[in-house]
Amino acid sequence: MSRRPASAATCAAAELAGTPVVMLTAFGDEENVRLALQQGVSGFVLKSCEPDELIRAVRAAHAGQAYLSPAVTRHVLGMVSFDTGERGRDAARRLAALTPRELDVLREVAEGLSNVEVGRRLHMSEATVKTYVSRILTKLGCANRVQAALLLRDAGPQG
Description:
CATH superfamily of the largest domain: Winged helix-like DNA-binding domain superfamily/Winged helix DNA-binding domain
Strand order of the largest sheet: 1-2-3
Mean pLDDT: 80
Strand content: 5-15%
Shape: globular
Low-confidence stretches: 1-6
Largest sheet: 3 strands, parallel
Number of domains: 2
CATH class of the largest domain: Mainly Alpha
Structural class: mainly alpha
CATH architecture of the largest domain: Orthogonal Bundle
CATH topology of the largest domain: Arc Repressor Mutant, subunit A
Number of helices: 9
Helix content: 55-70%
Radius of gyration: 16 Å
């Protein structure tokens, strides 16, 4: 009986729940990026990257931020379409638990802004933004900022 092996991201997420994971891989295609992000990785970096890029990814993950290798950004952009089916309805239902201000913060986070940048745009301190992001992730049941941003994307225009 042949069994399909679990992906590295699935194994890492299951074994290290709550620990930020940066996936280092040679495969930056859309499907691998999507699967890794769905499993909650904090970073996604290609093996062909420069060492300083890997260091930036690890530091971002340690700081609670997400990092995507610029080389995979076009694949992620190809994934940016909202889901009008059950997943989209579920995303909209989950987002309904957020306050208007939490949604404002999430929208800025979904643009890829750091806590400092969100704070500047919304006239908040970095500590206040961190508190909001933590509350948002808890309410949405998301492991990281990338998952929350994908949830917002899935909800579509109403999100």
